[in-house]
Amino acid sequence: MNKPATGSATPPPSRNIKAIVHQNLARRRAAERRFRGYGLVAITLGLAFVVLMFGNIISKGLPAFWQTYIQVPITFDSTVLDPQGARDPQALANADYATLVRAGMRQLFPHVEGRLPLRALGGLISSDAAYELQRRIQDQPELLGSTQEVWLLASAAVDTFFKGNIDRTLPEAERPIKDNQIEWLDKLKTSGKIEKQFNAVLFQSGDSREPEQAGIRGALMGSFFTLLVTFLLSFPIGVATAVYLEEFAPKNRWTDIIEVNINNLAAVPSIVFGLLGLAVFINFFGLPRSAPLVGGLVLSLMTLPVIIIAGRAALTSVPPSIREAALGMGASKLQMVGHHVLPLAMPGMLTGSIIGMARALGESAPLLMIGMVAFIVDVPKNFLDPATVLPVQIYLWSDLPERAFVERTSAAIMVLLAFMILMNGLAILLRKRFERRW
Amino acid sequence: MIKHKLALAVAATILTATAYGQSARDYISIVGSSTVYPFTTAVAEQFGKANANFKTPKVESTGTGGGFKLFCGGVGVQHPDISNASRAIKKSEIETCAKNGVTEIVEINIGFDGIVLASSKKNKPMPLTIKDLWLALAKEVPDPATGKLVMNNFKTWKDINAALPANKIEVLGPPPTSGTRDAFVELVMDHGCKEFPAIKDLEKADEKKAKATCQTIREDGVFIEAGENDNLIVNKLVANPNALGIFGYSFLEENLDKIQGETINGVAPSFETIADGKYPVSRPLFVYAKKAHVGVIPGIKEFIAEFTSEKAMGDEGYLARKGLIPLPNAKRKQVAMDANALKVMAP
Fold first, then answer.
1. Per CATH, domain A217-434 is 1.10.3720.10
2. Could you tell me if residue B10 is inside a domain?
3. Which InterPro entries would you find in this protein's record (chain B) (predicted)?
4. Whole domain around residue B221: which residue ranges?
5. pLDDT, tens digit, for every residue of A94-112?
């Protein structure tokens, strides 16, 4: 009614709006640009940190995949190894193989004299060399009496030096490699008797206090057994719980309390589960300390809530029409769930479980309480052998004084990260391949 | 059906595991100090390699106190056989042990560990004394004029001792849960404060208060708790040339190209000065064995023999190469003899 009145006072409304929009346009665009800018900065910063972290770990850890070996002429002298000539395996196993290594090194450098220089010469080779020769004789007793050129593991100090991590210009007292050793190593290098080979030891042996002999096989097997127990326990229980709560349980105060508690458990610090494991599984049930079985039990307590929550989310995303159609066709409730809802929800449940397992793989704090933070040389063979896991191995190595453990720590982190990426990648793949959208 | 079988299998595993846990253990179980861990693990590995008929012992790093708690839990295969300690066993711990039936304990003093104060090589060396260190780190210090206790306000080393440089006081050290921290307090703080008449007077009047004054480390950001990881402290020292770090001698030895150990009371930390007792901040390291387990768990006697042998504990043994400072010759022989005879501690 009063439109004409205002119309006469101001310019026509269409031009008015256009002007206002025009006026604000620059400001709105600037705001949007700014917001995008912030986003970009945030992402770049995040990526920069990831690149920095990965770059640091990889640059430190990559050299650990190669290891320095020295070629030594070894005479498997039967007068040393088998004085009786009986070829008794027991006597052969206990023979003095260190003498052979020393003799081989002296053959390479015949001019070295005196106790201290000879010790320094012996220090170039890892203490595992003698056991390596013993293993060879055990595998091939026919080597006895022959002379072989054998590539022997160099000591950790030589390895660090050969990789360029020890500055040769430092005063002699400040480096683990002495002047005479550098001279010998240079000679070996010119004659091609020292080289870097793929570090198979890292993947084949358990822990060791000598960096060049230390490997992650024990920790990998420990992680494998622990996660197997975790999966076998938490997946069926988690799925059953999710299905029951979502499909069968009445909605009342009790189920509400259960739901709140499950959500709460998902946020409990993991060390608490470790304490629980110590009190219940070890002290009450008397299970052995340091066993992957106990580790798996503790970690499954930790992953259960994650799997239940993911499982329930997957079940709710299945549209009600599917349920109604199944029931309408005369299916029982169990048939409806078993034949229709669960198969459709399974990819989501698996994804949630895999992410929960990845979290369990990276966990070390709860394992401290149940004795899995330990030095274990023998590779575990079953669920009850003492074992450690990959993150714990990383923690233990990072705390050792020897410089050569730095690169091994980073190498172990790389292996752990590779498994994490693999597991998370699998979760994404499952989701992409099998997820149905309605 | 499958789920039933699975549940049965899990139940069966747990049952057999329980039976297994209570019946036999064929490897030695060792717990305790993270300072002794690098040495015991080296012996364990050698022992496992040299003896084909014994399994390699398992060595847990639980800390000295945590180790004794497990060790004193009782006699039986579920309890550990050997405990590492970066200090001697306390009276209260012996009592706990006795209460749980662990009465026969064999104490083995395996050697010494020096605690060093180190700084980056970029820094000039600072000749420190225990007195200076106490003044730098105590929460309350006697006022130079009146002798009354006041809050510690020293900001630079020059404030404490005119001979020292005017660098900011900044010390990175282990947290109170660490055995290294206990030893530092006992060897440096307790001794440093005794050099002041004011504290001596206080000691006569109120012994408890004097002890607390001696041992309390300042909390105004000068002493920084850097966690249990000594490699981390070394890296922080390289990044911050003004800072001093407190850690075990083996970490100094491994990083001589980056850091230097400060002299304390005129003595530089080195293998020789720690071994002959001239360097004032060193502590004995121990291993405790349960005699009741000898003969039950295979290999304990042989493991002790390996530990106390000359090729391990000796002057040029492999433990010395790992940074353990060996005992003097006569003492070492005595320790080896007593240990191999399984001589138990006096109750």
1. yes
2. no
3. PBP_domain, Phosphate_ABC_transporter
4. 114-282
5. 778 888 898 899 889 988 8
Using a CB-CB distance cutoff of 8 angstroms, which residues of chain B are in contact with residue A289?
Answer: 29, 60, 78
Domain presence at residue B219: yes
Pick from A127, A285, A399: which is nearest to B34 by CB?
A: A399
Q: What is the CATH number of the domain that holds B226?
A: 3.40.190.10
Do residue B124 and residue B258 come from a single domain? yes
Residues B76 and B177 in one domain: no
Q: Which residues of chain B have pLDDT under 70?
A: 1-23, 347
B127 shares its domain with B265: yes
pLDDT lower than 70: segments of chain A = 1-15, 438
Q: Do B231 and A93 make contact, defined as CB atoms within 8 angstroms? A: no
* Closest CA in chain B for residue A213: B45
Model ipTM?
A: 0.82
- Integer Cα distance of B226 and B217 in angstroms: 14
User: Which residue in B29, B49, B256 is closest to A131 by CB distance?
Assistant: B49
In a domain, B16, yes or no: no
B56 with A376: Cβ contact below 8 A: yes
**Nearest-CB residue to A174 (from B13, B78, B257):** B257
Stated pTM of the model = 0.85
Interchain pair B58, A167: CB under 8 A: no
Contacts of the segment B298-303: beta carbons below 8 A, 24+ positions apart:
B298/B26, B298/B54, B299/B27, B299/B28, B299/B47, B299/B51, B299/B54, B299/B55, B299/B57, B300/B28, B300/B81, B300/B82, B301/B340, B301/B342, B302/B47, B302/B51, B302/B54, B303/B28, B303/B43, B303/B44, B303/B47, B303/B54, B303/B57, B303/B82
Whether residue B299 sits in one domain with residue B262: no
B19 falls within a domain: no
